[in-house]
Amino acid sequence: MLEVRAISTFYGHIHALKEVSLEVQAGEIVSLIGANGAGKTTLLNSISGIVPASQGQVLLDGQDITQLSAEAIVSVGISQVPELRQVFGTLSVHDNLILGAYLRLRRGEREAGNEDIEYVFGLFPILKERQNQMAGTLSGGEQQMLAMGRGLMARPKVLLMDEPSLGLAPILVQEIFRVTQQLQEANTTILLVEQNARAALEIADRGYVLETGNVVLSGTAQELITNKEVQQAYLGRAPGKNNRGANSHKASSKT
Ligand code: ATP
């Protein structure tokens, strides 16, 4: 569904992405892991047109979207849930969600906004309770839920999620990952960027490892979880020591 072909992205003379290629098939969760500064956010921003790539191509359903504006990329079906939530703090929860459906409302899909708000409230009941509250007064976890909900309001084919677990308590991290799996079950295709590599791989079908702007490794989530280099560098555990990879959530949820 989403294919990135050898994209390179620069910030001035900084070469942030070096011919990066990856693909996400329809219905997959693909996790992208890597250290600080590896280029993960840049890759999402290059896919969504926020920081256009200077070389290479991005294709959605085979259509080349590399030259489209960020707004047009949302219209064709890619929504990004940004790092650090970035909700509109002085607007209500409800209005933040409606803004997520802005392009669809502009196209005249007037009823869709309400239907989709109910869908988002079903995923995150706390947002329904807080719908009239100013978004800036929500807790970090609630803001993350709102940012995800806002991204879903565009009815994306592909949802790009940037570090959804950042700064959240473990119980909220679990909740965010649970909903991410639920979205997959509802046929949303997901590219997930995470420093919480273990949690991200446990819910993923496949994964990529990014190091200083290069994809250095890719494989099924199971292959990456059991890979010694990945374990040492990203999973914070010595190889072979109490490795739960083979019994991951993903493995059990698929059976
Ligand atoms: P993190 O996990 O810390 O968010 P990341 O993997 O998402 O890191 P990026 O934010 O994509 O990494 O940054 C990749 C490289 O590009 C880094 O060296 C960073 O300093 C540089 N970079 C990112 N944004 C800019 C910018 N606006 N101007 C200049 N350099 C930038």
Describe this structure in words.
The chain has 255 residues and is an alpha/beta fold. It has a domain at 2-77 and 156-253: P-loop containing nucleotide triphosphate hydrolases (Rossmann fold, 3-Layer(aba) Sandwich), CATH 3.40.50.300. Helix content is 39%, strand content 24%. The chain contains twelve helices and ten strands. It has helices at residues 40-47, 70-76, 93-100, 102-106, 110-123, 125-129, 140-152, 170-185, 197-202, 221-225, 228-234, 249-254, and strands at residues 2-11, 14-24, 29-33, 55-60, 63-64, 78-81, 158-162, 189-194, 206-211, 214-220. It has a six-stranded mixed β-sheet with strand order 6-7-8-3-9-10, with helices on both faces. α3 runs parallel beside α7. The protein is globular, with a radius of gyration of 18 Å.
Question: Measured on Cα atoms, how large is the radius of gyration?
Answer: 18 Å
**Each distinct ligand:** adenosine-5'-triphosphate
Kindly report the name of the CATH homologous superfamily of the domain at 2-77 and 156-253: P-loop containing nucleotide triphosphate hydrolases
The largest sheet has its strands arranged as 6-7-8-3-9-10
- How many helices? 12
Q: Quick one: overall form? A: globular
Give the fraction of residues assigned to helices: 25-40%
The major β-sheet equals: 6 strands, mixed
In CATH's first tier, which class of the domain at 2-77 and 156-253 applies?
Alpha Beta
Alpha-carbon distance between the termini?
Answer: 24 Å
**Mean pLDDT over the full residue set:** 89
